[in-house]
Amino acid sequence: MRRDLFAAIALVPLVSACASTGGGVAAPTRPVTVREPAKLPPRAARLQMMPGLENVVGVDADALGRQFGQARLDVWEGDARKLQYSGQACVLDIYLYPVEGYKEPIATYVDARRASDGREVDRAACVAALRGG
């Protein structure tokens, strides 16, 4: 009898920990405020200048569209933009940022990889392959 009573008492904390509180989500203790991101002034961007990227780095999204066609992805993150172009040879990510003296964000950095395994490939060779040349 004593053993059963001890076992029952030992199970009380475990059973109470599993008890439901109604399935609702607890309200936060303070109201949550969502603010618009601060509009930052254009920063001095460092352009990734490399042979083979002359007509890619330093141009805007419209010029990139004329070279590569419709972007596979067009992602905005704050004031930055990423355009992604892909083909059989590679995937090309082009990053555009606002730069002082330019009306629209311009391409400042390019990254290239193989679609099959994500391994890095030569950026200029990827640009040439996606242009069809």
TrEMBL record:
<keyword id="KW-0732">Signal</keyword>
<feature type="signal peptide">
    <location>
        <begin position="1"/>
        <end position="19"/>
    </location>
</feature>
<protein>
    <recommendedName>
        <fullName>Lipoprotein</fullName>
    </recommendedName>
</protein>
